[in-house]
Amino acid sequence: MFTGTYTAIVTPFKNGAIDERALERLIKMQIRGGVDGIVPVGTTGESPTVDYDEHIRIIALSVKFAAGNIKVLAGTGGNSTSEAVYLTEHAERVGADGTLQVAPYYNKPTQEGLFQHFREVARKTKLPLILYSIPGRCGVEIGVDTVKRLADACKNIIGIKEAGGTPDRVSQLRAALGPRFEILSGDDSLTLPFMAVGAQGVISVASNIIPREVSQMVRAFAAGKPAAALKLHQRFYPIFKDLFIETNPVPVKAALAMMGVVEEDYRLPLVRMAEKNRETLRRTLQSCGLTLKR
Questions:
Q1: Which tens digit of pLDDT belongs to each residue from 9-66?
Q2: Is 266 an annotated catalytic residue?
Q3: Within 17-104, where are the H helices?
Q4: Which burial class, exposed, middle or buried, applies to 161 when counting CB atoms under 10 A from its CB (0-12, 13-18, 19+)?
Q5: Parallel, antiparallel, or unpaired: how do β-strands 129-133 and 4-7 relate?
Q6: What are phi and psi of 84, to 5 degrees?
Q7: Is the pTM for the entire model greater than 0.90?
Q8: What does DSSP say about strands 201-204 and 4-7: parallel, antiparallel, or unpaired?
Q9: How many Cβ atoms sit within 10 Å of the Cβ of residue 80?
Q10: Distance (Å, rounded) from C-alpha 197 to C-alpha 158?
């Protein structure tokens, strides 16, 4: 249902407000690039910095601009269960195809707390849910046993975005959950290693700027053409790494601004890149063949 390439799209701002025209440009760029779907208002979309009305508006606009050409997997997670439920219910109302549910961050719930949190969200919607485990950001990992327990208890919990950094986790998840449970890489540089041991695609930051190339890489590997996939991975690996030279999504927004797609506008506490890192990123983009307008 949610396999392939999904772009964790940035939220364009202009003068501090949502830049709806830039969002439309970005989503149409994704459609032309052949991605399978987009993930609006995830952490790459600066979800902690938008209010509830803006959050729902961004999802509604994404559904409108996607126009049924690609799927919309709305980021509606949070560190408060009531907030995650509220946003998920509204995502369903505005037509999202599914939701991405990040592990509650900062408050570091136990595995029992994680189970009850995700189960409550799943109970309040008919949408399919993709869990999101990223312990480096959240301070807690969704344990394999907890994922299995959730999948058994909630028929609409169908997959996980795995950003724990090791293929071994993917192997453990696949062994515990079986072939139908969807596993997506949460790290562009690990997409191929993860797919080699059972993942079925990626929720990508890099596909904001190179949607066609990331899609081609994922499809090549899935079609049994690992050499072609590896060639693309090796070509764009410098981008995969340098998009994290500073805190995500600052570098990818800077790259999109260099390409003339969005304004380089963030909400505090995110700020513009240091000039040294900006020049490193610029050189990397140019060396990988991207055309820059700014």
A1: 999 999 999 999 999 999 999 999 999 999 999 999 999 999 999 999 999 999 999 9
A2: no
A3: 20-33, 52-66, 81-93
A4: buried
A5: unpaired
A6: -60, -40
A7: yes
A8: parallel
A9: 12
A10: 18
Q: Give the rounded distance of the alpha carbon of 224 from its chain centre.
A: 24
Q: What share of the chain is helix, strand, coil (3-state, %, to 5)?
A: 50, 15, 35
Count of structural domains, the chain = 1
Q: Which of 71, 161, 253, 266 is catalytic?
A: 161
Dist. CA 236–CA 196, nearest whole Å: 18
Q: Which residues span the domain enclosing 192?
A: 4-226
Regions of the chain where pLDDT drops below 70: none
H-type alpha helices, 44-159: 52-66, 81-93, 111-123, 135-138, 144-153
Per residue in 244-262, pLDDT tens? 999 999 999 999 999 999 9
CA distance 253 to 199: 27
In a domain, 152, yes or no: yes
- CATH number of the CATH domain containing 58: 3.20.20.70
Q: Is residue 264 part of a domain?
A: no
Catalytic site residue from 6, 86, 105, 132: 132
What is the dihedral angle through the alpha carbons of 66, 68, 70, 73, rounded to the nearest 10 degrees? 80
